[in-house]
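quick one, 200 residues, struct below
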Amino acid sequence: MNTSRCFRADADQRSFWRPRKFVEARDNDPARANEALAYIRTLYAVEQEIADGKLVGEAAVSVRRTRAGPIVKRFGDWLESEHRTALPKSPFGQAVAYARNQWPTLGRYLDDARFTIDNNVAERALRPLAIGRKNWLFVAGGGGLRTVAVPMSLCASAKRHAINPWAYLTDLLDQLASKPADVLHLLPDAWAKGHLPAAS
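---
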């Protein structure tokens, strides 16, 4: 199986693993559903060790490659094998088929410490948009969501870089008022370097 891109592993409807699908399959096929969940739990245990050890960069990648890499391979092989015997319309068969269909998104996190095992951070950043969506439909006319999307995206990026969104947007608007020729230094990651104390 190709493992070239990141995967999504939260319990959200759009997640890669969709643990809930395997949890639901336990009523239909408890042994195999629990085996799938055991693979997923093992991968998260490796990530927890990395977090507990405060490993970053190449140290995190090294642990992922040596500890999680073989588990990812075994899980992929197991999904291929189970796909041949699972009833396609059964809850377990549907969980396996979904995981196999999403498999190309798995694996990039093994080779790049910037990536996480799942997309939970992104999901949490998008949650305020989802909650406010109906409220913003009429902000500044019919295209309200587009009007709100840019500042919300900037706020989410600011939070991602440990920046106070209010301070960032205030400074951003002040600087944009002078119409600078180059605005790259105003992007949240670059702005943080010039305004936040360096990590020790």
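Confidence is low (pLDDT under 50) at residues 1-16.
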